[in-house]
Amino acid sequence: MYSEKVMDHFQNPRNVGEIEDASGIGTVGNAKCGDIMRIYLDVDENQVIQDVKFKTFGCGAAVATSSMATEMVKGKTVNEALTVTNKAVMEALDGLPPVKVHCSLLAEEAIHAALWDYAEKNHIKIEGLSKPKSDISEHEEEEDY
Amino acid sequence: MEQLIYLDNAATTKVNPKVLDAMLPYFSDKFGNPSSVYGFASGNKQAITEARENVAEILGADPSEIYFTGGGSEADNWALKATADAYEKKGKHIITTKIEHHAILHTCEYLESKGFEVTYLDVDENGVVDMGQLRSSIRPDTILISVMFANNEIGTMQPIAEIGRLAKEKGILFHTDAVQAFGHVPIKVDEMGIDMLSASGHKLNGPKGVGFLYIRKGVKIRSFIHGGAQERKRRAGTENVPGIVGLGTAARICADTMEERARKESELRDYLIERVMKEIPYTRLNGHRTKRLPNNANFSFQFVEGESMLIMLDMAGICGSSGSACTSGSLDPSHVLLAIGLPHEIAHGSLRLTLGDDTTREQIDYVVEKLKEIVEKLRSMSPLYED
Amino acid sequence: MEQLIYLDNAATTKVNPKVLDAMLPYFSDKFGNPSSVYGFASGNKQAITEARENVAEILGADPSEIYFTGGGSEADNWALKATADAYEKKGKHIITTKIEHHAILHTCEYLESKGFEVTYLDVDENGVVDMGQLRSSIRPDTILISVMFANNEIGTMQPIAEIGRLAKEKGILFHTDAVQAFGHVPIKVDEMGIDMLSASGHKLNGPKGVGFLYIRKGVKIRSFIHGGAQERKRRAGTENVPGIVGLGTAARICADTMEERARKESELRDYLIERVMKEIPYTRLNGHRTKRLPNNANFSFQFVEGESMLIMLDMAGICGSSGSACTSGSLDPSHVLLAIGLPHEIAHGSLRLTLGDDTTREQIDYVVEKLKEIVEKLRSMSPLYED
Ligand SMILES: Cc1ncc(COP(=O)(O)O)c(C=O)c1O
Ligand SMILES: Cc1ncc(COP(=O)(O)O)c(C=O)c1O
Ligand code: FES
Ligand code: FES
């Protein structure tokens, strides 16, 4: 059901772990399926993301999107990191089954939450970033029978 | 280990090669329609009669009380909808439990949309129905009690004979979904006061797409599939002869080997449960410790999500299943695990392993070792876990 | 002649050995539940997808519009009952014909008992529906027209495209029971304006106990069997994987060979019809002379009773069927033969012979010779016959 890339990132997740004294930490939960993701960012004085780690409690897609998302934001500036949307992550993973699209939102939201935390701590404003929602459950497009 | 370790026998089972052998002649050789009058087809009618007798004997029922269907879900739908139809003049109240299979629960929801009232009984932390609550839920307009024989997720068996006695005392029909139990544990419809019982071929090493509904003589029940005069005019449709023969053969084999098989499976199951509970911390056994199907083990591993666990087990060549929301298609974890009181995040980390008659001790040892590694790995990635 | 001559392909067919080969792996090797997440079962989901694509392609439908069922009767029941359920707010009037299969007729009677009104259209002496009567039967509260594609007894095919056009013009759903036609004659749901279509595996050299309902996208239709999320949540129950694979394979083979097969069968059928009509006096051909299924011949032999004829044919190694009351289980002769205007005693003497793709000219010759003898013998015993 999953692409080879998803399976690769699931089996060998990149950047698992925690960062002590992280510049920003974001934790989001998906009340709908009950999954949780936490992202740690290490941002330098030029607003470049030097390191990123994650921990995820979720399905194969959640783990793989966390892993891919951390790879994609590493080395980017905080502004550039906003371009790492769930869509971009899914594309990088060669797609996800339709029922798993919401899992990729978890990764996007966790990064945004970590960036928000970083911005708050440093009293800066990141253009286009808004306060994270406590719960990312959005409207699923499920067929109505 | 190269070989596949199949521990998902509650999902479906392998057709026993002896069962397949019994079915094979009816596809391309003896393919006649059992309703035909010529000699070529008369053997097929006979084959169905034998299958019916096999099934009836096991239940202590009369062959005329067995109606073959297209599976367990059809049997469940039939029992509930046709009873509702036939008895609605008497009343529109039905009692069932919160841990039934969706074939019962969604049918009850449908009936609610048609003006029936349904009481969904709670279960205790082991998944057992509370007889007191059942008794106090009975009303003058209650027409049916439907309680499953054994649960498909946690394996817990219900006090069926007790429920049957109560139903009889109150003059209420009693249906049981025995899809997981039939062929695995002894069932006697008379002793247990069962009026209707559903079963499905593919849960007992028989074929998919065939099942039956037992309907006690005297129970007023309408057809669900109308049409031709098959199955004593109660279930229309050209008979699935190979499927019915397969179900009958599988039932016979299960009956003949039940004791030995249940002993072997429950021994291995207990070995699995003991090792897992001892060697993996933060683990819960779901379902009743002893009143459970011989082949069912169900665990919750805290801080771990079920689908991830299944994928890793799959990579190790092990087939299992989970009540995790992430595998359910819907976004909620299993209604059964919630009903026994598990919080969402613990329900998430559930793993069901259901043994078959070919499961070995070596396989269990291998599974336990792999499971330890997998749980540890997933916990190390979990934001919920701190060691 | 030692060999059996099977001329009852409208009752059921032999599973094509290629179809059986395609099914076999799914019993005891690839037996996984298609809903499971592990790799072992993923091929089974794929196998179902392919079968669905095969069926859809033949009809010019989208795969998502095909729902597998436990047979043709279930598909018919589903189409009618669930449409009634979903559209009863719009109206409670249904139009069908007097010559439908019992899976339609008895379902209509059931719906009548639930407050629906059903118009049963007449047919002419060839069994063709009168478009004028159909048109004038349509009312503002008509929600469904259900007319069979081809009749199972007399083989007559209906003007389906014309009915489809009328239904569309009036905004009424159109269902056709194509159990006898699917795989035998070309059917295109779009060109013919078909909204729902029923078919059954065992009428096209596929397995028994599996069928499908085509439901056009946009048609609001409820589940008939509630439960698990199989078949896009519309038809619950663990999928009969070997059965579905068999149906898909049979459909594919039929589509690939349809033209050649229909040509060959109708040639032999015409040869049979011509010889019988010429060589046996007081004989009537039932059904339309040309607008009929390629494999169907149906005769009435005056002064002769059907069951007796069948038994004698059986003794000569020939399998056929009859609409005689004596074979019908009920005491009335076939409703189809009565609807085309046959008096009881002529309906009694009916014989249906339905060819297969392995029927030979030699077999037909043998059958005609035997038939002459048998009819003669029975007539000589008949009090109705004077030569
Ligand atoms: C026209 C027609 N409709 C429906 C059916 C029912 O199909 P099944 O017997 O597969 O349920 C049949 C055959 O029996 C048939 O010929
Ligand atoms: C308890 C229970 N009831 C009903 C069913 C439905 O049976 P089937 O899938 O054969 O329709 C199942 C299995 O899927 C089950 O475990
Ligand atoms: S995290 Fe639950 S479905 Fe993906
Ligand atoms: S004469 Fe015996 S059933 Fe008709």
TrEMBL record, chain A:
Give the matching InterPro entries. NIF_FeS_clus_asmbl_NifU-like (IPR017787), NIF_FeS_clus_asmbl_NifU_N (IPR002871)
A Pfam short name? NifU_N
Can you give the residue ranges of the NIF system FeS cluster assembly NifU N-terminal domain?
1-123
Gene Ontology BP annotations: iron-sulfur cluster assembly
Gene Ontology terms for molecular function: iron ion binding; iron-sulfur cluster binding
PANTHER family reported in the protein's UniProt record: IRON-SULFUR CLUSTER ASSEMBLY ENZYME NIFU HOMOLOG
Its protein name is Fe-S cluster assembly scaffold protein NifU
What organism, scientifically named, is this protein from?
Answer: Qiania dongpingensis
User: Gene name, please?
Assistant: nifU
